[in-house]
Amino acid sequence: MPTIAIVSRKGGSGKSTLATNLAAYFALQGISVTLGDLDHQQSMRAWLKRRPSAAPVINAWVGNASGAARPPPGTTNLVLDTPGGLHGLELAKVAMNADAILIPVSGSLFDRESASDCWAELRQHPRVKSGRCAVAAIGMRLDARTHAKEVTQDWAASVQLEFIACLRSTQLYVRAVENGLSIFDMPLSVTEADREQWRPIVAWLGERVFASLASAPAVLLRDQGTVPRLPVRPAILQPVVKSKSDIESTAASSGLGRFIPSIFRRKTARTEP
C-alpha cells in the first residue's frame, strides 16, 4: 500500500494544501485513493464533507498519531495529513509506515528552522537512511517577486534535504479548499500555471514511490492491487465544470456552482477590454 505522508511541525505550513491537492490529483487520474487524517482538528474530514458530489471520489480515514497508523483493509493508496508538532515516537511511526514524506516549507526563517529540526530527526530513522522512505521538501506560498525560492533552495541544500518544487502564493488554493475542491478540479484556463508547478512533484513520486514498488518482487505487492504508474507530468485533466452551462446543470446537485461562477467572473474581467 503506497503511503505518502505530509509532515510539518509548524502549523499553517501548507500541509492541508498539499494533502488535498495530491489526493484529488490521484482521484482525477482514476486511481483509488484514501485521504487519511491524523490531525485532531480533522481538517481533511471537513474538506471531504464539502467536496461536491460531482467531483471524483476520495475515500476518508481518520486515525490518530499516537496509535499505529493502520488504515482500513482494502486501502490501496494513502495520502496522510499529520498533526503539527510531530516528533519522537509519533514521527517514527509515520516514517515506519510511509513510502514518502513531503515537508512543506514557507519562506519564513521559522518554517525553515522547524523543518530543519524535523529533518534532523527523520534522517536518523532506519527506513529513511536506507531509502525505503523517501523525504523531500516543497516550497509553499513563495512569492515569485522575491528571492524566497532561492533562499529556500539554499537552505535545503545546506541541510542535505532534497528540494523538489515550489508552489506559488495564490488565492486559488484557498478558495478551492473552502469548497472541497483542488486546483485539478477547476478549469484549466485559470489553473494552468499552478498545475505546471506540480509536474516535479508528480515526477518525483512516480520515480521514488510507485516505480520502485512496481519493480519489487511480486510477493511484496500481494493484496496491494494494481500499482499505478504516475505520468511524468500532470495530465491535462478535464475539469469538473467546463462552461457556464455546466454550472447551471451541476450547481443544484453538487454545490460546485458556489465557487466556479466567481472564477468565470474574474476570468471575464481580465479578458474584457
How would you describe what is shown here?
Mean pLDDT is 79; it is low at 214-229 and 236-273. This protein has a seven-stranded parallel β-sheet with strand order 3-2-4-1-5-6-7, sandwiched between helices. It is of the alpha/beta class and 273 residues long. It has eleven helices and seven strands. The chain has one domain: P-loop containing nucleotide triphosphate hydrolases (Rossmann fold). The chain is globular and about 45 Å long. The longest helix has 16 residues, at 199-214.
Structure summary:
43% of the residues lie in helices and 14% in strands. With 273 residues, it is of the alpha/beta class. It has a seven-stranded parallel beta sheet with strand order 3-2-4-1-5-6-7, with helices on both faces.
CATH architecture: 3-Layer(aba) Sandwich
Put simply, the count of helices is 11
Radius of gyration: 18 Å
Identify the overall geometry. Answer: globular
Question: Low-confidence parts lasting 5 or more residues at pLDDT below 50?
Answer: 214-229, 236-273
* Alpha-carbon distance between the two ends: 52 Å
Widest β-sheet, arrangement of strands: 3-2-4-1-5-6-7
Largest sheet: 7 strands, parallel
DSSP, total strands: 7
Helicity range: 40-55%
Average pLDDT number: 79
Question: Which homologous superfamily in CATH is the superfamily?
Answer: P-loop containing nucleotide triphosphate hydrolases
Instruction: Please provide the ordered H/E string of secondary-structure elements.
Output: EHEHEEHEHHEHEHHHHH
SSE class: alpha/beta
* Number of separate structural domains: 1
Q: Could you say what the CATH topology is called?
A: Rossmann fold
The CATH class assignment is Alpha Beta
Query: In percent terms, what proportion of residues is strand?
Result: 5-15%
